[in-house]
């Protein structure tokens, strides 16, 4: 068997709120809550298990999602509809812009817990998916 990422836990202030926020933007489904987790599963089978963390204990992370051009258009439109602040860069120096790195498009936005979320249409290095 080859090694694959199966799931990861994303700490949040409110597990359902964070799961629904990301699922809504990416056009994914929120799974049934089990234990302390609210899951969102990506197309390649990786499950993001959102778990509510005690106040002040969230270590902010970065999560990047590879999407098609059509999925980018939908997600970007949803980010704008929600009035979420977005950036072309991870340092948040180019607000209200997207980037065109590696011949694709990309954008960064924050989830309700403050994690940096990124959607890109080309992997870093310009490899075709």
In short:
Keywords: Dioxygenase, Oxidoreductase. 20% of the residues lie in helices and 26% in strands.
What do these coordinates show?
- It is a single chain.
- This protein is α/β, with parallel strands linked by helices and 129 residues long.
- It has one domain: 2,3-Dihydroxybiphenyl 1,2-Dioxygenase, domain 1 (Roll), CATH 3.10.180.
- Helix content is 20%, strand content 26%.
- The chain contains two helices and seven strands.
- The chain has helices spanning 15-26, 69-82; strands spanning 7-12, 37-41, 47-52, 62-66, 86-87, 106-110, 116-120.
- It is globular.
- 24% of the residues are buried.
- The model has no long low-confidence stretch (mean pLDDT 95).
- Keywords: Dioxygenase, Oxidoreductase.
- Residues 4-122 form the VOC domain.
- This is Glyoxalase/bleomycin resistance protein/dioxygenase superfamily protein.
- It holds the Pfam family Glyoxalase.
């Amino acid at each position: 068997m080859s090694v694959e990422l199966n799931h990861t836990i994303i700490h949040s202030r409110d597990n359902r709120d964070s799961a629904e926020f990301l699922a809504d933007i990416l056009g994914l489904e929120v799974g049934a809550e089990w234990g302390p987790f609210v899951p969102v599963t990506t197309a390649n089978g990786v499950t993001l298990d959102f778990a509510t963390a005690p106040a002040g204990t969230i270590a902010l992370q970065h999560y990047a999602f590879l999407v098609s051009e059509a999925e980018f258009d939908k997600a970007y439109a949803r980010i704008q509809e929600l009035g979420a602040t977005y950036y072309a860069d991870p340092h948040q120096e180019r607000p209200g812009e997207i980037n065109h790195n590696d011949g694709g498009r990309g954008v960064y936005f924050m989830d309700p817990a403050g994690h940096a979320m990124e959607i890109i249409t080309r992997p870093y290095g310009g490899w075709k998916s």
